[in-house]
Amino acid sequence: xxxxxxxxxxxxxxxxxxxxxxxxxxxxxxxxxxxxxxxxxxxxxxxxxxxxxxxxxxxxxxxxxxxxxxxxxxxxxxxxxxxxxxxxxxxxxxxxxxxxxxxxxxxxxxxxxxxxxxxxxxxxxxxxxxxxxxxxxxxxxxxxxxxxxxxxxxxxxxxxxxxxxxxxxxxxxxxxxxxxxxxxxxxxxxxxxxxxxxxxxxxxxxxxxxxxxxxxxxxxxxxxxxxxxxxxxxxxxxxxxxxxxxxxxxxxxxxxxxxxxxxxxxxxxxxxxxxxxxxxxxxxxxxx
Amino acid sequence: xxxxxxxxxxxxxxxxxxxxxxxxxxxxxxxxxxxxxxxxxxxxxxxxxxxxxxxxxxxxxxxxxxxxxxxxxxxxxxxxxxxxxxxxxxxxxxxxxxxxxxxxxxxxxxxxxxxxxxxxxxxxxxxxxxxxxxxxxxxxxxxxxxxxxxxxxxxxxxxxxxxxxxxxxxxxxxxxxxxxxxxxxxxxxxxxxxxxxxxxxxxxxxxxxxxxxxxxxxxxxxxxxxxxxxxxxxxxxxxxxxxxxxxxxxxxxxxxxxxxxxxxxxxxxxxxxxxxxxxxxxxxxxxxxxxxxxxxxxxxxxxxxxxxxxxxxxxxxxxxxxxxxxxxxxxxxxxxxxxxxxxxxxxxxxxxxxxxxxxxxxxxxxxxxxxxxxxxxxxxxxxxxxxxxxxxxxxxxxxxxxxxxxxxxxxxxxxxxx
Lengths: 288, 418
Ligand code: SF4
Ligand code: SF4
Hints:
The complex is a heterodimer of chains A (about 290) and B (about 425). Chain A is globular. Chain A has one domain: 2-Layer Sandwich (Alpha-Beta Plaits). Chain A contains 8 helices and 12 strands. Chain A is α+β, with helices and mostly antiparallel strands. In chain A, a hairpin with a 6-residue loop joins strand 4 (about 100) and strand 5. Chain B has about 425 residues and is mainly alpha-helical. Chain B is built from 16 helices and 2 strands. The longest helix of chain B is centred in the middle third of the chain and has 36 residues, at about 255-290. At the A-B interface, strand 2, helix 2, helix 3 and strand 6 of A face helix 5 and helix 6 of B. The site of one iron/sulfur cluster has 14 residues of chain A, from helix 2.
């Protein structure tokens, strides 16, 4: 286990192709059933219902016939935090160490039995990836038989969020161990539920540290800190790839890919003129 | 009926009248207690908080009572450490207000957390990097200190004081109060600061985040400073209210003027620092993250520039100016206006640093989120106010809180006969 999260450790992440995403919501559904996510009878208020994976709708703001739409699925970004040192916005603030950064995987965990529900982490997360259990989890009769035995359901009064299907990582690790190569989990052995459920193959998941993995090949993460904003590490060297709110220095491990400029521009905030300066060499020059 | 308990030589209203007043406030208190139990037993779905508003009305109330309760540590520091003698005439009351504020803050936190029975995890599994951990430790310790500071005053009750042990205990505790005042000041510096730090370290929230010194963002220092500045104003405000309700003068003008002057200078220096901080944040910090100032104050139906102007100019510069200029400070009406504005100002600052942070959209495609508290939230927020009024009423009736009361109201020694 290293403390810098760059070498000898996995750094799981994903890249989502927004040009392929149709907004069908399969990722959301598969995530909920895979992870025993509770739901309410009336889900119309999205501000208090739990969606570890949430698909946002983006528009280019133009009127017909120039209107364009894109969909942006947002799981927890598994932020590496400023400088990618593991001090994610949420992890660094949790007073009870109930959410933790895995230096061996890069995954931000949530310890349900330790969280006491202060919700500071929710305030700190700019992606609204964290959800509070306002109610006791209840499933329609008979449905509790379909709950996944690999994931513990959560109680009222605590926070939960996407875990990159951590139980699948554990299963893959067990398998690798069984086959005598415990340090090398195969790419196909650890895939998140949303990745496998997406009908248009928009999501690619794997180890960002492993050049043999597809996610690494698409993202081509730069392991060096951005010279113009030292908080930013792991920027993509692919000019079509971006991260959400990259300038804040949260260092997400979820990347987005789009050929469309207006979509890429919605990944972050830019002052007047800034976007034009960086738009074509997004991967190489900072905009910090 | 209860005259044996009333401080010697003091005039108090009749017990039935007092009881009726207490019953009315008590009814409000019960309403709050009812809501509190609803939240504990049914959960936080009783509130209108949501995943955008994880921090809402309660946390604001918490921060606000702690800020205005800052009068206790600051007055204590001035009285015992800087040895400003005049302040001994108001220190008891400052301590009682502090005690009320801090016990309320702890109660609010106990209602606010989703799993109250796990509250102790914050100490047991403490994450030393979290500002909230620092808050929890210092807040609890400081509450213990305030209790210790309050005890001698309780023991000075006419009957309690007849017991030789209590009499000597109170006397000896007064003697070593300087140690507790120093401890209180030290602890307050940190928890007031870390409450400011709670917002300042949220680097995912451009509206909140600030640069700083070592591990402390500027909001850390601004919160401590503002509590020390506006806290004494609040002490004066509550003193004034008590004087109006009891129809008596309780503290001499020179004491009031002195505390008002100190508060005024603290407010002026604080507001200068706050203006510098705001300008730096607006022109350097936020733009470096891609945000224009207008992002935080436009495109929504509530948070406009008015809130910034009200906080800094109307409730900062104005009361500061009134309190530092001798002629306006010594004018009772203007002084009252100033301490009211000051109290509103610091509460507004805490509002901004809790609720506006949650309201501002951060992801470019996200929207403003506004929120209206549920009655359960309002009731539990009113609860500490009712509790505070009752405790002040009890303390005023049965304890020698104001040393100058007798002299100022020149009641002849044997007038008690109720
Ligand atoms: S997206 Fe939010 S919850 Fe996930 S690691 Fe980042 S700050 Fe934490
Ligand atoms: S809600 Fe739970 S995980 Fe979040 S900061 Fe509080 S204790 Fe930590």
